[in-house]
Amino acid sequence: MEAMQVKLIDENRYADEMRETVLPALATCRSEGWMAPADDDGLPPLQRAGKLHYVCYDAAKFDRLGEDGAAATFRGAVVISHGFTEFAAKYAEMVWYFLLAGYSVCVFEHRGHGYSARDVDNSSLVWIDDWRRYVADLAKFAETVGKDYADGRPLNLYCHSMGGGIGASVLETHPTLFDKAVLSCPMIAPVTGMPNWLASVLAGAMCRLGLGRHMVFGQSEFTPELDMADYEGASEARVRWFQQQRIDDPHQRTYAATFAWVRQALRLSRAVQRPEACDNVETPVLLFQAGRDVWVLNEPQNRFAQEVNSDGGNVRVVRIENSLHEIFSMPNAVLGPYLERILGFFGSSEMPTF
């Protein structure tokens, strides 16, 4: 299949187009729900009760709107697994493009994020007791809600950063769950500012001292101020839109890691890179990496791909040299080819060559 052309939102009118066109259209096909956490015998008991939030968008209802550029052909469903400190509303633009291409979309908010159950009172902090909880919850969501929306057609996975590390583990533990998967700058290994083995030792020591729920040194709580110098090269319109979502909704202000989260992120990193785990991946994977990434490491992504491919798997790595970590936040000149590759991959019967 040839790369699918995408009509992108005009960056010069970004906020207006989001408010006037995209969000009203999404509202007509949007539903939300709450899922009980996965019941996994290998996980410790939950310390706090609560359900996990998700938002879904029905392609059939969307198609009835007759939006310009819509495929009007149902192709299945896409499950979105977001990154660290993110939330469902941040992916409205990506949801819009998937709907235009004919996919229903199911966005899952990981534990401790968005409207899902939290285990700390400070809305800026992210804490998790066991990384396997993320994996079990995402797999349950895809097996139930995702498959329902796919309605017998392909069920695909799109994930970013932390959500990509979680997604990689799901591909290893549930090798037939998804038909295809896009790992966008996946957290196969995070950037910690020091060798990750040392960060693991330090985070473990802080947890043993009873400081697992404390904010990691050097991070901060959410503030409404935005310094575009931190996003040089990104689309200012998109970055400001994301920030406004946080300002407008206290549920969307997760911003900093706890020592326990760092400890578990590094345990996840080690687990997904194990050769015996990589050997289990059967799903065709398109892995994007950013040349200017400061949040996750590129080389472990390459090793992950090589390890999966060495045992007959199918991972294709696409490197975007001039991109920041959030490729979906980049200007249209970068976002357009990125989206076309994703949609071409999802829509093809074979692994496309790029």
Describe what this molecule looks like in 3D:
- By secondary structure, the chain is an alpha/beta fold.
- The protein has one domain (27-347): 3-Layer(aba) Sandwich (Rossmann fold).
- 38% of the residues lie in helices and 14% in strands.
- It has 11 helices and 10 strands.
- The chain has helices spanning 14-28, 59-63, 92-100, 131-150, 162-173, 196-208, 236-248, 259-272, 275-278, 298-310, 332-347; strands spanning 30-35, 52-57, 76-81, 103-108, 125-126, 155-160, 180-184, 256-257, 285-290, 315-320.
- The protein has an 8-stranded mixed β-sheet, with helices on both faces. A two-stranded parallel ribbon has the order 5-8.
- The longest helix is centred in the middle third of the chain and has 20 residues, at 131-150.
- The radius of gyration is 19 Å and the shape is globular.
- The model has no long low-confidence stretch (mean pLDDT 96).
How would you summarize this macromolecular structure in one to three sentences?
InterPro entries: AB_hydrolase_fold, Hydrolase_4, MAG_DAG_Lipase. This protein has 11 helices and 10 strands. It has helices at 14-28, 59-63, 92-100, 131-150, 162-173, 196-208, 236-248, 259-272, 275-278, 298-310, 332-347; strands at 30-35, 52-57, 76-81, 103-108, 125-126, 155-160, 180-184, 256-257, 285-290, 315-320.
Task: Itemize the secondary structure elements and their pairings.
Blueprint (H helix, E strand, L loop, with lengths): L13 H15 L1 E6 L16 E6 L1 H5 L12 E6 L10 H9 L2 E6 L16 E2 L4 H20 L4 E6 L1 H12 L6 E5 L11 H13 L27 H13 L7 E2 L1 H14 L2 H4 L6 E6 L7 H13 L4 E6 L11 H16 L7
Parallel strand pairs: 3-4, 3-6, 5-8, 6-7, 7-9, 9-10
Antiparallel strand pairs: 1-2, 2-4
